[in-house]
UniProtKB/TrEMBL annotation:
It comes from Yinghuangia soli. The gene is folP. Belongs to the DHPS family. Keywords: Folate biosynthesis, Magnesium, Metal-binding, Transferase. One of its GO terms (cellular component) is cytosol. This is Dihydropteroate synthase. Its EC number is 2.5.1.15. Pathway: Cofactor biosynthesis; tetrahydrofolate biosynthesis; 7,8-dihydrofolate from 2-amino-4-hydroxy-6-hydroxymethyl-7,8-dihydropteridine diphosphate and 4-aminobenzoate: step 1/2.
Length: 264
């Protein structure tokens, strides 16, 4: 899954694809590089971010979804708002990626059920402004598993076909580096929920911390090789997909993992 953030302020690529024409071009480039799915988002969810007004999110996302879907791409819309999900699906989006797992907008699950599209249900505990205050766990792997199972049950109770649910541990969302590594090291506990698992480590701060030197954290664009390493390990551990900003190295990593698995 290649990321196109149509935002001025996302932590690693904010402003780069804010102009719709640039975002569309970026989406085409990611497909040419081997992305199977393009994730288009108009609201930054970096820690501390304020929410974007609905009209602005619609203005950012819908033209990009329409153009890329119209050109034959498989597009997911990264949104927590049912109005944006609805407009994006009408414009051709094939998947709804709701980082709140249906918690932010109580109407989301019923819409996804009605639209019959797959939905990414991510582990989330609250909006960006306060999410890091909720990064407290006794056993992060067991708690994320239990909360993801509960989110899945909620969307299924609203009518979503269980076969349409993709789960995501939500790396960095109410989680510190130690929590992220624990989740990555125990992906089998999450794939054990029986649904495809999406892993989105790309360029996140825990990688910057891993690669830090005396200048401080490695900046986001210096984290792509580490991202590809996570891709290889996640793929080998049975992840269904990875959400990344730079596609080529992760595409190759997926092929390596598949060949490795096939030879076992
Ligand atoms: N992370 C971000 C945005 N969208 N979607 C899913 N499913 N999982 C994630 O972990 C996730 C996401 C934040 O990263 P970005 O600002 O680079 O897009």
């Amino acid at each position: 899954m290649g990321v196109v953030n149509v935002t001025p302020d996302s932590f690693s690529d904010g402003g780069l694809w804010f102009d719709p024409a640039e975002a569309i071009e970026r989406g085409h480039a990611l497909i040419a590089q081997g992305a199977d799915l393009i994730d288009v988002g108009g609201e930054s969810t970096r820690p501390g971010a304020e929410r974007v007004p609905l009209d602005e999110e619609l203005r950012r996302v819908v033209p990009v979804v329409r153009e890329l879907s119209g050109a034959g791409a498989l597009v997911s819309v990264d949104t927590m708002r049912v109005e944006v999900a609805r407009a994006a699906v009408e414009a051709g989006a094939a998947v709804v990626n709701d980082v709140s797992g249906g918690l932010a907008d109580p109407a989301m699950a019923a819409f996804v059920a009605e639209a019959g599209v797959p939905v990414v249900v991510m582990h989330w505990r609250g909006h960006s402004r306060t999410m890091q205050d909720k990064a407290h766990y006794d056993d992060v792997v067991a708690e994320v598993r239990a909360e993801l199972a509960e989110r899945m049950d909620r969307v299924v109770a609203a009518g979503v076909d269980p076969e349409s649910v993709i789960l995501d541990p939500g790396l960095g969302f109410s989680k510190n580096a130690e929590h992220n590594w624990a989740l990555l090291a125990h992906l089998e506990v999450l794939t054990g929920l029986g649904r495809p698992l999406l892993v989105a480590a790309s360029r996140k701060t825990f990688l910057g911390r891993l690669l830090a030197d005396d200048q401080g954290l490695r900046p986001p664009r210096g984290r792509d090789d580490a991202t590809a390493a996570v891709t290889a390990l996640a793929a080998a551990a049975g992840a269904w997909g990875v959400r990344v900003h730079e596609v080529p190295a992760s595409r190759d990593a997926v092929l390596v993992a598949a060949a490795w698995q096939a030879a076992l």
